[in-house]
Amino acid sequence: MDDLRTTLLTLSTDERRDFGVFIQRQRRKTNGRLDSRLYELLVQAKELKPEQLVAKLYPAQPNAVAYYALRKRLMRHLTDYLLLRQRQLDTTAAATVRGHLTLAQYLFEAGIPRLAWNTLRKAEKLGRESEQYEPLNAVYNLQIQYASSPHAEPLDDILPRYRLNKKAADEEERANIADSVLRQRLRGSRALGRAMVPADDILRQVLAEYDLQEAFARSPSLLSRLMSITRNAMLVRRDFAAFAVFIERCYKLMERRHGFAPAQRGHQLKLLYMLAHALYRSRRFAESVAYLAQAQDMLATGPGRQFGEYAPRFTLLLAANYSFLRRNLESIALLDALLVGPKPLTENNELAVRLQLTFHYFAEGKFAKANHILLSLARTDHWLEQHLGLEWMLNRNIGEMLIQVELGNTEVALGRLRALDRGIREQFPAVPATAYAPAIPAGGVYQPVLTYLALVRELVENPHITQERPFGNRVMHLPPFISEGREDLQVISFYAWLKARILQRPYYEVLLELAHA
Hints:
The chain has helices at residues 3-8, 13-26, 29-43, 50-57, 64-89, 93-109, 113-129, 133-145, 155-192, 199-209, 220-237, 240-257, 265-281, 285-301, 310-323, 328-339, 347-363, 367-375, 381-388, 390-406, 410-427, 447-461, 469-476, 489-503, 507-515. The radius of gyration is 29 Å and the shape is globular. The chain has 25 helices and no strands. It is mostly helical. Helix 16 runs antiparallel to helix 17 (347-363).
């Protein structure tokens, strides 16, 4: 695969046209024409091999050395174009502060200190309002450097502000590090499945290690970082209800005491997503939708590119909420629109959209459509487990098995079921009791999944068993965790299918009853 071609193909149609014009402006005689020619060849529909590109660029005498030099020059053009475009499109407070700082430096060097100091004051005011600690530190350093100017503020006034900013910047850096450290320490648990590590202990240890215990609710940027840290631990514990209460209280406290300035919209969007997600997982669907509507209003009124990364995540969550509010067809419309949207999705987002769509079509009884979309994932179990985690892979495979049952492909469904059962038993074998620890059944924390698979297997092999009272009783008493309101909605959706078969009622109706229990 040609990395330069891959990079160029990420540009939209308008951006490709603008980049072509940009190259034309940079070109010099023959070299410039070859730059444009190479660009045209790389972005055409059919990918050409290096030797074919050389032959087309230098038909009289192939020159591989000149070709690779030309590639480097085209990459420099692309880098310059992206830098220029980023400056034009970046409307964040940090970019504005840096712009003021650059202008002030130029004015000092040009011998106009009065204008330079006026510019520095603007940069400081904006930096403080938007909590841009890093560029603000550079502003203070420049103020200190030129404190001898007659237009400067007193050095004794600058230094306390400089020290306060350094303290805040240091706290933010420690929060960033703590976030990454916690993610790394919990990553093993995500790959292995459910809580295999004491998440609460890790959270307390990380916060103490980086001296962040008392840092909550001091600023929107720090609050979003610390909520991210807490959320990572709560996701492992699956204590969504507790986290929803906690983050909602922190968010409302910040909103009431300080509010969110326009420059802090990115942090506010992160908080709104975490809050809406926690409410969804706590089955407070209407409240989750209300916060998502607030976030979507912000996305609609803010710079499109600045917060564009959030749009797919908010849409996925909104569609998930709609399905539990009897608006499943709206969920499908939202996700279909994402797949055909003008901006391509990231690989993980696209996989998430397709997997979620299979659930919505399954709920509508459109099993062939659900199967078609599931097949379009085109990823092996190993890839899904390594990149998205064990539970993502299990959800995909259980969903596929149930779809095959509904399509009447009994042997295919049983084959998938046996593979699932075998994989869980191999990864989590039974452990006998010792003097220090009780016995662990086969499957470990996934032992209920094995029980569920055994029930599905009995049903598939003997469809009439749903009419037998003993089997129905076993199904009805399978999930004591559902009443606790802590189990994953995906797990509940799988159980709802089994219960619907026993009750001989529509799957979607049974699912909604369980989710709102």
